[in-house]
Design brief:
Blueprint (H helix, E strand, L loop, with lengths): L6 H7 L5 H14 L5 H9 L6 H15 L7 H10 L3
Helix pairs in contact: 1-2, 2-4, 3-4, 3-5
Length: 87
């Protein structure tokens, strides 16, 4: 699933109450490699309401795939990177 039309439904699925759905969603977003997904993935990474470590770990992997950067599980560094690289 690497079609840009998949972006909107995947972004909506980031808010699903099931952590398994969110984990698969962040993985799919990473596979999509759509730069527009970076912001929502960063938000998912720093969401205090999402206590699932798998979702956060997969969000980091997705961000690495999209940005070619590796700031681990550090929302501040990801946000700073995004600020520097906005188009």
């Amino acid at each position: 699933m690497r079609h840009p039309a998949a972006l909107a439904p995947l972004l909506a699925a980031l808010k699903d109450p099931d952590e398994t759905v969110r984990a698969y969603t962040v993985t799919a977003l990473g596979n999509l490699k759509e730069p527009a997904a970076a912001g929502p993935l960063m938000a998912a990474l720093s969401d205090p309401g999402d206590e699932d470590a798998h979702v956060r770990a997969f969000a980091v992997e997705a961000l690495k795939a999209i940005t070619s950067e590796d700031f681990q599980n550090n929302p501040q560094k990801w946000t700073a990177w995004r600020s520097r690289n906005k188009e």
